[in-house]
Amino acid sequence: MNTNPDLASDWTPPERIRPIAIGLIVADGHVLLMEVRDRTGFLKGFRPVGGGIEFGESAEQALLREFREELGWEPHAASLLTVCENRFEHNGAPGHEIVFVFSGERPEGAPAPLPDTRLDFLDHGVATSIRWVAPDELERVPIYPEAIEPLLRTAIAGT
Predict the structure, then answer these.
(1) pLDDT for 11
(2) Residues in CB range of 117: below 8 A, 6 or more apart
(3) DSSP sequence for 61-74
(4) Backbone angles phi, psi at 123, to 5 degrees
(5) Strands (E), the chain
(6) CA distance 77 to 35
(7) Dihedral sign from CA coordinates of 50, 73, 1, 159
(8) What pLDDT, in 10s, does the model give residues 75-114?
(9) Full-model pTM
(10) Are the C-beta atoms of residues 59 and 51 closer than 8 Å to each other?
(11) How far is CA 130 from CA 20, 32, 88, 133, 146, in A?
């Protein structure tokens, strides 16, 4: 189901360049991703878990903090893969991000990739869902930022 009104997002990008850190976590051929939904709850795509870098914080520190806040665990062996620019539109507003992309491993004890297992929560007032996504679903739904798609495909192929 591509539309879920309970997860509709009124979020619009800030009118500034936003630095963020995201983590590509792949386990058993699945990748841990956050759903990107619009105002109607339509699933527009997926984005790796992560978020904004706070003043005085390194990109890696931001990544680990975001995982702790959102999932209650930190990825092991976080390693910077690339930095890219992401210019996009969401809910009718332009967005601009500088994205630090890390690889990492699911630590022992963190939830394993299971079908239909998802974590729904509020992130700064925005309904959000994180789940393990199978490669076949990635064929039907875009990945954001688009520049990381080759990295994601390589990471999945390596598991």
Answers:
(1) 85
(2) 111, 131, 132
(3) HHHHHHHHHHHS--
(4) -115, 100
(5) 17-27, 30-37, 43-52, 76-90, 93-105, 118-123, 126-133
(6) 24
(7) positive
(8) 999 999 999 999 999 999 999 999 999 999 999 988 888 8
(9) 0.92
(10) no
(11) 17, 7, 21, 9, 18
